Amino acid sequence: MSLLTVGSVAFDALETPFGKTDKIIGGAATYITLAASYFTKENNLVAVVGGDFPDEMISLLQDHGVNTEGLEIVQDGKTFFWSGKYHEDMNTRDTLVTELNVMEHFDPIIPESYQGTTFLMLGNTVPATQKLIIERMTTRPKLIMLDTMNLWMNIAMDDLKAVLKMVDLITINDEEARQLSGEYSLRKAAKKILEMGPTTLIIKKGEHGALLFQGDRIFFAPALPLEEVFDPTGAGDTFAGGFIGYLASTDDISFENMKRAIIYGSAMASFCVEKFGTERIVNLTQEEINARVQDFVNLSSFEIQ
Amino acid sequence: MSLLTVGSVAFDALETPFGKTDKIIGGAATYITLAASYFTKENNLVAVVGGDFPDEMISLLQDHGVNTEGLEIVQDGKTFFWSGKYHEDMNTRDTLVTELNVMEHFDPIIPESYQGTTFLMLGNTVPATQKLIIERMTTRPKLIMLDTMNLWMNIAMDDLKAVLKMVDLITINDEEARQLSGEYSLRKAAKKILEMGPTTLIIKKGEHGALLFQGDRIFFAPALPLEEVFDPTGAGDTFAGGFIGYLASTDDISFENMKRAIIYGSAMASFCVEKFGTERIVNLTQEEINARVQDFVNLSSFEIQ
Predict the structure, then answer these.
(1) Which class in CATH covers the domain with range B3-300?
(2) Can you tell me the ipTM of this complex?
(3) Distance from CA of A20 to the nearest CA of B (A)
């Protein structure tokens, strides 16, 4: 089934204890569509970049089967730029630079050919923009998934709550779940968030795995313990892309299939952190992905006699 | 098979955001033997208390089938006392009082009837004392498991490394694994620790579950997301007691069975934190334990098609 991803396509400059990069390709929608490309062939993108965005980066997305018809290029504008530096433990980072540039007035246009899409992935961006996108879909997608962050809870909580009423699934990290709900216990937090609109919640805990909540059901997916985390940038988006790409490819939104989708998403994220930026997720083989998923099976399976 | 636990039996005074206690029964060996009592009937204890330790507390242990022949009572001494206060997030705590009392000169005597025990659990205490206990066993147990803490890494690292060479399994938390190995990555940390002597390592991550390492094999057990964590005191010891109690009851130290044992240990720990001190783990039924283990199965099982 078809997937539409709306979100940022950007330049990132990263610094980790292992090294630093110049401007490389980044942005939520970049990671999401690249990760999803290993699962679904109908992989549509809506985003905006400036005239400074290199053609070869667009070709890279296209080579992965990403439909860039909805990628607006503002010739006299500059591409969204983010620069960050990770601390020694890789779990925390400082934002050094945020230049919104063309994202500041992003007015997402949905190409006619994208209408009727079955899966809609709203990458992390201004909640009002996420709401606008849903309103611009002529038929409601089968599943709408939304990613957001603490920034919008701080400065646009009302807008965020408005769009939450319109989506099926929200994905946030543990601290954001606590902030959004006002509850420290993740189980209580989940209960409150599921009363805000979505039927399903994914709480990402980074190196500690992810929790899936739906009604009274909970599923926990571990993260793979890695020898080295090289660069965590984009891991959450890669997770989301693998997750919704798998759902779209199977066209099955049952709880059991979402559990599988979380494992595929976690596998994709485990690749992402092994190298800088998108480097590791642009050249994966199906065999590598299957082997990594098997690692998750081995890691977490047990039998009670 | 028989289990011998050596460790502290103590008084604790606890303060959490939910309330505070006067002196209640605590200590590593208390939690370990109580948890193990649900699995193994040969549950032997070596510990020391003062003349101030109430008979009814000893009866409580005996009622759970704990053999207290090795519980030394120093009539003119005082029982080990620890007092702590938990922070709002329950993950960190301040020690308010530590009075070693009779633990300061603890000279563990192994009763003759305990010799030939198959499973030896060394609760967290002075590493030199742990070593002495192993040396006092006339036949080497089938499995020796050791718990320790950062304090001993700070003040008795050489003694700790000496006893590590003599044990099969060590259980520590993630920060302690990093301190002991000098590696931030838990996978690298595990590799180094397994070169120090033990063939098996369990890294406890509290609300984030536990990792089991043996050779190149890794197993991850989640923690159950709870509505409320009331008091985390003793959770790690209860985990260890459930784990080794299950191993002793099945007399099977294969990796597959250790995976099951970790789930049983995690289930016991999930009960422990629901009430103050040992309150929740002194009155469990087999049905409650089985239902809780089933919660873990439901939480973490998935099938890749």
Answers:
(1) alpha beta
(2) 0.91
(3) 20
